[in-house]
Write a structure and sequence with these properties.
Blueprint (H helix, E strand, L loop, with lengths): L7 H12 L11 H10 L6 E6 L10 H13 L4 E6 H9 L1 H8 L2 H12 L4 H11 L4 H4 L3 H18 L7 E5 L5 H14 L4 E5 L5 H10 L4 E2 L6
Parallel strand pairs: 1-2, 1-3, 3-4, 4-5
Helix pairs in contact: 1-6, 1-7, 4-5, 4-9, 6-7, 6-9, 6-10
Length: about 230
């Protein structure tokens, strides 16, 4: 079971200092937006990708992506949906034991990709990593910059292997431990495919956080649960 720190509010403020974005948890979904785009898109919406970035537990597939893919396939039979569980590739790259230790702690996981998002703040990111890993024998031995560089190389190699320009839309599930990794991937993609439609949803794309995410990063739409 993923562990939650006792002083979570303090960790949240540390993450905000590193990333410049305050995560707030609310549920969100994409499927209404995908169907809407299918009906009105100038470009034929015939192929989309659903992406789950680190750090979900590697022993489980992404339930969010699996559920959404099944739903869309039932509603739009002619839509090709490719699912990418990238976090499994990263677990293989850095080692399953190390991945497991990091993915069990939310703020440890977020600190690494925050260093890749903001290289100028790498000292603050490393300080957060050291603080959160102080009681873990395995993580205390980790060289933060070396680990960050390896994760960047693995992530960039994954992104370069795909022809993202063939997709009409990319959907990201952003839940626990996935905020900074998803934002890193989205920024990488937008720099190289500025016309690519990107939609994000999940627990960390709430109504208040969505506006900040879109302003800070070049996304296209944050899907949020409608209020009754």
């Amino acid at each position: 079971m993923r562990k939650t720190n006792v002083n979570e509010s303090q960790s949240r403020s540390q993450l905000f200092h590193v990333t410049g974005i305050k995560p707030v948890a609310l549920k969100a979904t994409y499927f209404q937006y995908v169907i809407e785009m299918k009906n009105r898109s100038i470009r034929p919406l015939d192929k989309i990708a659903l992406i789950s970035t680190p750090w979900p537990l590697y022993s489980r597939p992404s339930m969010q992506i699996g559920t959404l893919k099944a739903f869309l396939s039932a509603r739009i039979p002619d839509l090709q949906i490719d699912a990418f569980h990238f976090y499994l590739s990263l677990a293989e790259s850095i080692g399953y034991r190390l991945y497991h230790e990091i993915s069990e702690h939310t703020w440890l996981a977020e600190s690494i990709y925050s260093a890749l998002l903001y290289p100028g703040r790498i000292k603050a990111a490393e300080a957060l990593f050291r603080k959160e890993s102080a009681g873990n024998k395995i993580l205390r031995q980790v060289r933060f910059k070396t680990l960050a560089n390896r994760i960047k190389k693995t992530t960039d190699n994954f992104l370069r292997r795909q022809n993202w320009g063939t997709f009409a839309l990319l959907g990201f599930s952003i839940s626990l431990c996935q905020l900074t990794s998803a934002l890193y991937v989205i920024r990488w993609l937008k720099k190289r495919f500025p016309g690519l439609m990107i939609v994000v949803g999940g627990a960390l794309t709430s109504g208040t956080a969505a506006d900040g995410l879109l302003k800070k990063f070049p996304g296209d739409r944050c899907c949020r649960k409608r209020r009754r």
